[in-house]
Design a protein that fits this description.
By secondary structure, the protein is α/β, with parallel strands linked by helices. The chain has helices at about 10-20, 25-35, 60, 65-80, 85-90, 95-110, 115-125, 130-145, 155-160, 160-175, 180-195, 305-310, and strands at about 200, 205, 210, 220, 225, 230, 235-240, 250, 255, 260-265, 270, 275, 280, 290-295, 295-300. The strands form three sheets. It has a six-stranded mixed beta sheet with strand order 3-6-9-12-14-15. β14 (about 290-295) and β15 (about 295-300) form a beta hairpin.
């Protein structure tokens, strides 16, 4: 997916709009400058841009940011000790893109990779790429809809490392496509160090993805993951080590991969497949089937179209 850049003239036009329509945010940005210099400053809201006036996003996606802000206000009142954290991370920001960039920058910073630098990287990519803007919302809904431990959109944005890792991957993937491979790999390395999740920036991953827990998930360079896929903790989409070039799995839409399942080689996992936890998959899997075992084999068929949405990794109920 190539970034869709907004013309410079559009930036100037919408910057003026923001000055006229967001005076209240300007005041909060001035206040925040003294506490969180540079990277807490206001950034133009992409929802005001021409790309977002073309109704590419569903109305439910448009309202996620409003829900997040309301949830943050409620939590700030209920837990005053978190009020500064919630203000700095969510309530001081003008849009989901800016808040996400702030959260990611602060999670991944280290003494030589500063939060200000990371904030610039994330904002420069996210604010100019409509596909990423859509993906961060669809992924957020996937976590909220499918993960029973997810309390709110707000908690996912602030605390869920599977979501964080996925969004850093999206930025790194865009950088990789622009030829900025060293920077993309640096982000991959930081995510692996901080979150224990290793996604190569060249991998191709669709929307509405859930990395449940996320710990020890590995997705290799030539892997492809379709839309509406759910991956549990410890999943590996790797290579056998016997081939070069295109050497990683291709996972179709609606697939549910159970905890610690390992899928190796340039093989295809068909649509709507359920892979039972702990399985070792070395061969193609036909659509809408259940596989289990070491090595894995087909143990039955599924009636449901997208097992990734129902999130039931137990195959014993079907058989």
């Amino acid at each position: 997916m190539r970034p869709q850049h907004v013309e410079d003239g559009d930036h100037e036009h919408h910057s003026n709009d923001n000055k006229n329509n967001n005076s209240s945010f300007s005041t909060s940005a001035y206040h925040m400058e003294r506490v969180f210099p540079v990277y807490a400053m206001g950034i133009p809201n992409p929802l005001h841009s021409s790309a977002f006036h073309n109704n590419h996003l569903d109305i439910s996606l448009h309202t996620i940011w409003d829900h997040i802000r309301e949830e943050a206000r409620f939590e700030a009142e209920r837990e005053p000790i978190l009020s500064s954290f919630l203000y700095a991370s969510i309530l001081s920001h003008d849009c989901l893109e800016q808040a996400l960039a702030f959260v990611l920058a602060n999670r991944l910073q280290n003494p030589t990779l500063l939060a200000t630098h990371l904030m610039d990287i994330f904002c420069n990519l996210i604010m100019h790429d409509e596909s990423i803007q859509r993906s961060i919302r669809l992924d957020l809904k996937a976590f909220k809809d499918r993960d029973p431990s997810c309390l709110s959109y707000c908690s996912t944005l602030l605390n869920t490392k599977g979501y964080h890792s996925l969004q850093v991957y999206r930025v790194a993937h865009a950088l990789w496509g622009e030829g900025r491979k060293v920077l993309a790999l640096a982000l991959q390395s930081r995510v692996s160090e901080v979150f224990g999740i290793d996604i190569h920036p060249a991998a191709k991953i669709g929307d509405e993805i859930l990395l449940d827990h996320g710990t020890r998930v590995v997705i290799g360079e030539t892997a492809i993951v379709g839309n509406r896929v759910s991956l549990m903790q410890g999943v590996t989409l790797g290579e056998t080590g016997k081939e070069g070039g295109d050497r990683h799995p291709k996972v179709a839409e609606g697939v549910l991969v159970g905890a610690s399942a390992i899928i190796l080689g340039n093989i295809r996992i068909g649509e709507g497949v359920k892979i039972v936890a702990g399985s070792l998959v070395l061969k193609d899997v036909p659509p809408h089937s259940i596989v289990a075992g070491v090595p894995a084999h087909v143990i039955g068929c599924l009636n449901e179209h997208d097992p990734s949405l129902t999130m039931n990794p137990d195959a014993t109920k079907e058989f």
